[in-house]
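Hi there. Long-time user, first ticket. I'm pasting a complex I've been working with (about 246 residues overall). I'd like to know whether the download I got is complete or cut off, because the file seemed smaller than I expected. Thanks.
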Amino acid sequence: MNLTNHMKLSFPSISTNEGFSRAAICAFILPLNPTVAEVADVKTAVSEAVTNAIVHAYPTEQGTVYIDAKITDDRRVIIRIRDTGVGIADVEQAMEPLFTTSSDERAGLGFAVMQSFSDKVRVRSAVGRGTTVTLEKIIHSAYDEG
Amino acid sequence: MIDFTYENGALTARLYGEIDHHIAPRLRGEIDMKCETLRPAVLILDFKAVSFMDSSGIGLIMGRYRCITLLGGRMEVVNIPPTLTKIFTLSGIQSLGVMK
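Hi, the file is complete. Here it is re-exported in full:
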């Protein structure tokens, strides 16, 4: 598969950028002519990953969230959301539905949503160095239109 | 973001726009303040005009369910748009018996 488009974003870990990152990723995938449901899926998965970075990666001080998004010629969208924050000690435990370290009414569903709304989710993390979440989804709509 | 009507013991909170971690605390504060002041028999959360919601919205609903139950009332969640059915289904909120 070859790359057809590529973009990079970085922004401070402030919650107003959750909406910005969703809007940016939505604009980036629009040339693939996604369905409304596909747009909602990608926006939701990205929102969860970016929120995790903002809430959990930088609990005491502001940091930077990096997004690297690619579109390949097989209509695959690959979105990497990276932080250089505190990291996750036990990724498997963090990915269990309803697991949360936060007391702020977080539902603990972030990774479950990412997994349900993407085709593939990869999480790499090192304590003290940060976390990288990679989301992959194939956008089918143009095939469906024949 | 949100507007309210109160009629015959029923408080309706009409939510609109996008619900995420950035906006959820403000919605929580406004709904809880109204509930504590009015002590409604039923709190109705209307999602008709919500264009986007992530799991922060699920946390918001579960938190309001706890809050209104503690105040002796009950909750209903109405008008869920088709684009949000997937996250509602995933959340298991239907097991609370609040979705109309």
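A couple of notes from our side: Chain A touches chain B at residues 15-16, 18-19, 22, 36-37, 40-41, 43-44, 47-48, 51, 54-55, 104-110, 112-113, 116-117 (CB under 8 Å). Chain A has five helices and five strands.
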